[in-house]
Amino acid sequence: MGWSLVPYFPGKMADMRSERVLGDKSSYWHKIRKNRCSIPVSGMYEHRAIEGWAKKVPYYIWQKDRQIQFLPGFYELRESALANGEKIQTGNFAMLTRPANELMANIHNDGEYRQRMPLFLSPELEQFWVSEHLTDDDLQAEAKVRVLVLRKFAAAWQ
Question: What does the domain layout of the chain look like in residue ranges?
């Protein structure tokens, strides 16, 4: 699996704006919304730009009470042909992001994806994210996707 999705238009995308997955039915993300995956991480780096400094300052961010957490993402599988005609299948994935909270907006303050952060889920929602029980109706944006709301979580997970 490779990091970044390669949509059927020019460019690569490593981060998926959560507000576009269901909200924009013409988006590439909406088309692959059923291809959910969990991305295991022990933490992540975000880089902060400081005026007058040549390089950004890396911040390592992790949950102190968990060694591993799983970020929600989407994947795609594609079949392509090698020069000899052999067909191979390749896979790529991207993580789901949301508008940054106040702390992360201060850190992730520069670049194309500034003011964004990964969408973090509770351990219970991490499991439900990849469940076959999760439907479009379960995914609901709340005020610019501040949080992922899973309305039928309790009922469907039993």
Answer: 2-40+67-157
Q: Give the CA-trace dihedral at 147, 45, 30, 99, to 10 degrees.
A: 40
| SS3 readout for the chain | CEECECCCCCCCECEEEHHHHCCCCCCHHHHCCCCEEEEEECCEEEEECCCCCCCCEEEEECCCCCCCEEEEEEEEEEEEECCCCCEEEEEEEEEEEEECCHHHHHHCCCCCCCCEEECCCCHHHHHHHCCCCCCHHHEEECCCCCCEEECCHHHHHC
Residue 32 confidence (pLDDT) above 50: yes
Output Rg (C-alpha) for the chain, integer angstroms. 17
Query: What is the pTM assigned to this prediction?
Result: 0.72
| Tens digit of each residue's pLDDT (9 = 90 or more) over 79-113 | 888 889 899 888 888 888 888 888 888 888 888 77
Which residue from 157, 96, 95, 97 is spatially nearest to 132, judged by alpha carbons?
157
